[in-house]
């Protein structure tokens, strides 16, 4: 009788490589690894060989970069999804797509279980488990295995286990620090080692996408980003695919030290965690689109969008991507961005990203109404009547209730 199969989300790093061995030993299952290419870059080089050395019977590598950008990243951008105002949700946006592909792979190879390397106190376990259970609700149930959560491995135990199993560790820096890094084209999250001391500045070897300010160019650079209905489509007048555009801006912004985030974050499981991120393109594109919105959306649209952005960000962060509410909010965002077409000019310099210009054929900014020059077309006399009506309710309440005996 053939052994049962388990499809493991495999990054090629220490956690997932250890999990490959651990599942075979503790569940008596064959392991098929699934590596979804979200733009992780060099991490995918040699990934099939690493999986084979760990005992995987098959290694699937799927390029889903276009799907990731068009169906997850750009909807998140249009929704203004920045968790707690600073985190562009690079990892959180990738997890539902990975959960979707795990279910698809399990059906394809006839697996009865899927697995991930998430710990018991992180957010990713929720994102994976909730997504998998939701997507598998209408077919054969899939068992979810989470070695790091079940074993409760510490970093030191993982290192020892990896050495005992003859697995290669990815080490960074002269001090042999081993960071936990989750990377995709929208950003990378760096955890562990010295980063867990919130008083210490993140060591420079934790960063790989952005230059320290001291090493950035002396002169600023300006880039122009073109948008169509809230979607970025060009850089400096050259039309690009989403994947190409993000890669170009990542490089340009990183060269100028833009994109570093050091944040004490509120995790879903109730603890605070020091999180370090590098999201150069995300910071630039969110800044640019917000600037464009100020000219193409009414005040009321902006206010409602801002309110929904917080809800949307929390939903993505909390692993509730596959919900009808998220779909509903996406519908609003698509409608609100109907006229978010135009260009935004951004200046990058010494770690800063500053919008210095914006234009749109649908801009609600009217020069003749806004100007104080001789071309001013605003009827100043109409302001008197407007203010009289605008203040009527306040004046009535003040006359009837202020200092009254009822108080």
Folded structure, characterized:
It is a single chain. With 407 residues, the protein is of the alpha/beta class. It folds into 2 domains: 5-64 and 85-174, HUPs (Rossmann fold, 3-Layer(aba) Sandwich); 184-359, Alpha-Beta Complex (Argininosuccinate synthetase, chain A, domain 2), CATH 3.90.1260.10. 41% of the residues lie in helices and 20% in strands. It is built from 14 helices and 14 strands. A 5-stranded parallel β-sheet has the order 3-2-1-4-5, sandwiched between helices. A hairpin with a 2-residue loop joins strand 13 and strand 14 (352-359). Helix 1 (14-27) crosses helix 7 and helix 10 packs antiparallel against helix 11. The longest helix is centred in the N-terminal third of the chain and has 20 residues, at 90-109. 38% of the residues are buried. The mean pLDDT is 92.
Secondary structure layout:
Layout: E1 5-9, H1 14-27, E2 30-37, H2 47-53, E3 58-63, H3 65-78, H4 90-109, E4 113-115, H5 124-135, E5 143-145, H6 147-151, H7 155-164, E6 180-184, E7 187-191, E8 221-228, E9 231-235, E10 238-239, H8 242-255, E11 260-266, E12 272-278, H9 280-296, H10 299-317, H11 324-336, E13 342-349, E14 352-359, H12 367-370, H13 382-390, H14 392-401
Parallel strand pairs: 1-2, 1-4, 2-3, 4-5
Antiparallel strand pairs: 6-7, 7-12, 8-9, 8-13, 9-10, 11-12, 13-14
Helix pairs in contact: 1-7, 3-4, 4-5, 8-9, 10-11
């Amino acid at each position: 009788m053939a052994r049962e199969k388990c499809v493991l989300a495999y990054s090629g790093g220490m956690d997932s490589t250890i999990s490959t061995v651990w599942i075979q030993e503790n569940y008596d299952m064959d392991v098929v690894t699934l590596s979804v290419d979200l733009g992780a870059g060099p991490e995918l080089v040699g990934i099939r060989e690493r999986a084979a050395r760990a005992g995987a019977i098959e290694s699937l590598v799927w390029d889903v970069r276009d799907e990731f950008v068009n169906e997850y990243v750009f909807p998140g951008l249009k929704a203004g999804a920045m968790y707690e105002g600073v985190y562009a949700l690079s990892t959180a946006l990738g997890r539902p797509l990975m959960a979707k592909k795990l279910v698809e792979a399990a059906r394809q190879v006839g697996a009865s279980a899927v697995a991930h390397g998430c710990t018991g106190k992180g957010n990713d376990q929720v994102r994976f488990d909730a997504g998998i259970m939701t997507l598998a609700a209408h077919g054969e149930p899939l068992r979810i295995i989470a070695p790091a959560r079940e074993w409760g491995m510490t970093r030191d135990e993982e290192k020892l286990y990896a050495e005992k199993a003859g697995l290669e560790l990815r080490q960074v820096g002269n001090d042999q620090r081993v960071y936990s890094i989750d990377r995709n084209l929208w950003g990378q999250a760096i955890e562990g080692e010295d980063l867990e001391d919130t008083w210490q500045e993140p060591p420079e070897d934790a960063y790989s996408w952005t230059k320290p300010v001291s090493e950035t160019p002396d002169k600023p650079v300006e880039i122009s980003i073109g948008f169509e209905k809230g979607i970025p489509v060009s850089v400096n007048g050259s039309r690009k695919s989403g994947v190409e555009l993000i890669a170009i801006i990542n490089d340009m912004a990183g060269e100028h030290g833009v994109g570093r985030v050091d944040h004490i974050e509120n995790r879903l499981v109730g603890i605070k965690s020091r999180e370090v991120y590098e999201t150069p393109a995300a910071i630039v594109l969110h800044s640019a689109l917000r600037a464009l919105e100020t000219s193409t959306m009414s005040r009321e649209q902006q206010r409602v969008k801002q309110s929904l952005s917080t809800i949307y960000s929390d939903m993505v962060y909390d692993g509730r991507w596959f919900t009808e509410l998220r779909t509903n909010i996406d519908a609003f965002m698509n409608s609100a961005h109907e006229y978010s077409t135009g260009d935004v000019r951004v200046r990058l310099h010494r770690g800063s990203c500053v919008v210095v210009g914006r234009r749109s054929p649908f801009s609600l900014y009217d020069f003749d109404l806004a100007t104080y020059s001789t071309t001013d077309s605003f009827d100043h006399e109409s302001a008197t009547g407007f203010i009289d009506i605008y203040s009527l309710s306040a004046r009535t309440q003040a006359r009837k209730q202020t200092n009254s005996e009822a108080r």
